[in-house]
Design a protein that fits this description.
The complex is a heterodimer of chains A (108) and B (551). Chain A is of the alpha+beta class and 108 residues long. In chain A, 22% of the residues lie in helices and 30% in strands. Classes of the chains: A alpha+beta (108), B alpha+beta (551).
């Protein structure tokens, strides 16, 4: 698996793809999987991140989602938390070339 | 067109039901992802960034109108109303739900299609020349041997667990439109001095992170012995190909590390081991049966010119440009080969909507002997169109955004799906293709620049063929930000060559200006009649590089 967080990243969240349709999902504070990045549990620090990832991967996680992993999140004064990489931004929104598709289409 | 026999039907139908059971068990939690993943991949189902992606095989790029209509129907019913034609002459759907894919495959099977051989470490779907059976000076229609190879390789037990995937391409023409030298095995159909048909076999080409041009292993394999010869190549690869490192597992690495001479000796020795009495040969009656499916269509005897075409060209300059650029001479007088560009200015290379696919199917049925072809450059072809019908076909294509007259021009870009869809990508490809297309939108300028093949990959796996672009662009990731590396001088035709990297990479904001800069250098440097690639081959990297990186 590629590295989705820079070394020393402060904020991280856990994402995966839903088994039945591949939809991008995020692990929430409440302990379920949400379709929206805005509901993702944001871990502050490496230990907290590992703890969220461990919570996201119980014995039966595979019955619902595929390959959960941590990715870096940046805090922005204006927009709040945002995925750090282009890749995770695209996963959170949808293809940049088809704004009518993916999560961005539902949001707008 | 090849039609399934009872064995083909049974094979595909059984495969759909097996996959239905596998999906049901996976969704019910009875099997793990580790167990399921290889099974879904064997059925063309990948997991990408936003959803599953299904790759459907289009053997040697040939479709009937009925099949094209089914592809449109599947796009509507199971996807988001479009499909993406790929550099492997296949189609990909970007959004199908896993639990609906068995139904999709069942509908697909009803038109004799499937997703077998579109993934996994097997011999993949065979690709070929999109002008097969329509172009003059063809030695033989390459789809005949392609179909024989397809039948031989499908579920071949000895070659289903190769060290890595394996791609075979075939051309029956001296002008290579199938990029055969960039394949694991590339086959050129040739005739010897006695007038017998045989096969020139190239082995060990490929792109990816370590690109190589294939080496010619044999000048002439007699027609009856081709499958046995391929078996010998596959056996050498199966025995000696590396399984310890997936980056070094392709046959190109084996050929490179073994050396061309030694590889030839190994293949010849393996071939000699095959007992003549037990050699796998295809019975002539079977060859004849398959060849009959690809018999030339019954075309009318027509004059070489068409008065109605000439008059339409004279009165409609846009149509005239389209005929010049997108229509190629047919082997039969009075007919033309129509290229349908899937590269509208500013559009997404290779994408077609369900409605567009339906329109193309209707045109194929009415005007092109019921055939459509997919090209490895992500365009479509109507192979047999009467010159008298060109204007009608054009008008319909134009009304549906399918008449962009840019075949082979700077805006006819190959681009992989890139980071907009692909789980492996490091950078986006499609937006670059769109920006370049928009920057060079002016057709007069495109025609002045002439043939210029830009190919864009969003990662080192090179699905966008950047190594063989006249200008190649490779997207790289630097700490989560996209950068683009340029290479020059690649070519995928009969004079295949790999591009040379210019130097440091460009940002997304700078890359289109860099392309503009390279085009300006070419325009200044070119001699009369030289294409970009000709100029590059004459003057080399230096003048392009100096201007590209001038402060």
């Amino acid at each position: 698996m590629a590295q989705h967080s820079a070394k020393g990243a402060r904020f991280q969240a856990v994402t995966a793809n839903r088994l039945t349709d591949g939809e991008v999902v995020y692990f929430t504070d409440a302990g379920h999987w949400s379709l929206s990045f805005s509901e993702a549990a944001i871990a502050d620090g490496a230990d907290a991140a590992e703890a969220v990832l461990a919570r996201a991967m119980p014995a039966d996680f595979e019955a619902h989602v595929l390959d959960p992993y941590l990715f870096e999140v940046l805090q922005d004064a204006q927009t709040g938390f945002q995925p750090a990489s282009v890749r995770e931004t695209i996963r959170a929104k949808g293809p940049t070339i088809r704004l009518d598709l993916g999560k961005q289409a539902i949001a707008s | 067109m090849y039609r399934y026999d009872e064995f083909d039907h049974q094979l595909v139908a059984e495969r759909v039901e097996q996959f239905r059971g596998q999906v049901a068990r996976r969704v019910a939690g009875e099997i793990t992802e580790d167990a399921f993943k290889p099974l879904r991949l064997m059925n063309g189902v990948y997991l990408q960034l936003h959803a599953y992606m299904l790759r459907v095989a289009i053997p040697y790029g040939t479709l009937s109108s009925k099949q094209m209509r089914m592809l449109a129907h599947l796009a509507r019913k199971y996807d988001r109303g479009y499909g993406h034609f790929t550099t492997r002459q296949n189609i990909q759907y970007n959004w199908p739900a896993l639990d609906r894919i068995p139904d999709l495959l069942q509908e697909l099977a009803s038109v004799e299609m499937h997703a077998i051989q579109t993934s996994g470490n097997c011999i993949r779907n065979v690709t070929s020349d999109q002008y097969a059976g329509a172009i003059a000076d063809e030695v033989e229609d390459p789809r005949i041997i392609s179909e024989i190879i397809r039948q031989w390789s499908t579920f071949h037990p000895e070659f289903s667990y190769l060290p890595r995937k394996f791609k075979i391409a075939v051309t029956g023409h001296k002008n290579d439109r199938a990029a055969i030298k960039l394949h694991d095995i590339g086959i050129v159909i040739v005739k010897n001095a006695a007038g017998e048909i045989g096969y020139e076999v190239h082995v060990g080409g490929g792109q990816g992170r370590t690109p190589f041009i294939a080496k010619k292993m044999s000048d002439f394999v007699p027609a009856a012995q081709l499958l046995a010869y391929l078996e010998a190549v596959m056996r050498v690869y199966n025995m000696l190909g590396r399984r310890d490192n997936s980056y070094k597992a392709r046959i190109k690495i084996l050929v490179h590390e073994t050396g061309e001479e030694e590889m030839r000796r190994l293949v010849d020795a393996e071939f000699a081991k095959i007992d003549a009495s037990q050699m796998l040969t295809v019975p002539q009656e079977e060859i004849d049966r398959i060849a009959a499916y690809f018999a030339p269509p019954v075309l009318q005897e027509l004059p070489a010119t068409s008065a109605s075409l000439d008059s339409a060209r004279a009165s409609d300059s846009a149509f005239d440009h389209w005929v010049t650029t997108n229509v190629v001479s047919h082997v039969k007088s009075g007919y033309g080969i129509v290229n349908i560009s899937l590269k509208p200015i500013g559009g997404i290379p290779g994408d077609a909507s369900d409605a567009q696919m339906d329109v193309i199917a209707d045109l194929a049925e009415a005007y092109a002997q019921d055939e459509v072809r997919v090209t490895h450059e992500q365009n479509l072809v109507l192979p047999h169109v009467k010159l008298d019908d060109l204007k009608t076909v054009y008008d319909t294509l134009l009304a549906h955004g399918l008449a962009t007259p840019n075949l082979g021009m700077i805006s006819d870009t190959i681009a992989c799906p890139g980071l907009d869809y692909c789980n492996l990508a490091n950078a986006r490809s499609i937006p670059l293709a769109q920006e370049i297309s928009n920057r060079f939108a002016d057709l007069d300028r495109q025609y002045d620049i002439g043939e210029l093949k830009i190919k864009i990959s969003g990662c080192i796996n090179a699905c966008g063929h950047h190594h063989v672009g006249h200008i190649g662009i490779l997207g790289v990731d630097k700490k989560g930000t996209e950068f683009y590396q340029i290479s020059l001088g690649g070519s995928a035709d009969e004079n295949a060559s790999l591009g040379d990297i210019t130097g440091r990479a460009f940002t997304e904001d700078d890359i289109v200006d860099a392309i503009e800069n390279l085009v300006a250098s070419y325009v200044d440097l070119r001699h009369n009649g030289e294409r970009f690639i000709d100029t590059y081959r004459r003057v080399g990297m230096q003048p392009f590089k100096e201007r590209l990186y001038a402060e």
